[in-house]
Design brief:
Number of domains: 1
Number of helices: 5
Structural class: mainly alpha
Radius of gyration: 29 Å
Order of helices and strands: HHHHH
Amino acid sequence: MSTNEQVRVEFLKKLDTKGLVDRLFTLENELEQAMLTESEYKYVHAHDFAGYNSDSRAVEEIMAALMPPADKKTVDQRKAWLTLQRKDNDELREATIKQHQVVFNNEQNHIRTEMINRKLENVRIVLKLKTQQIAFLASGFLENNE
């Protein structure tokens, strides 16, 4: 074997594709677990999720049960009274706090899923590059041995 061929063989040995493939499988498993965690969390806390411009069902149910006094006849008076209830009513305040916690925790789960997905994409890109390097080096090696 010539020196050039020995260099190619050594380079191929140092590519560590097995380590990359192992990392790929690990990240795929982590991504699957993160996606399951995210979906389970959404399912379990569906009642406490707030909409884009609305409250969660739990908060809306409590607010619906809180009837404004009869002297609060205008829409603005009712809104002001319900806003005050968010501070004064313990049950409503706790439901509002839980609503915010659920949204925050869901965002954390989503960020974790996205980060794992990005790591997985990076490993796939590196593995693709190494595959091309192997093909290039092997083609030169095979051409020389024919």
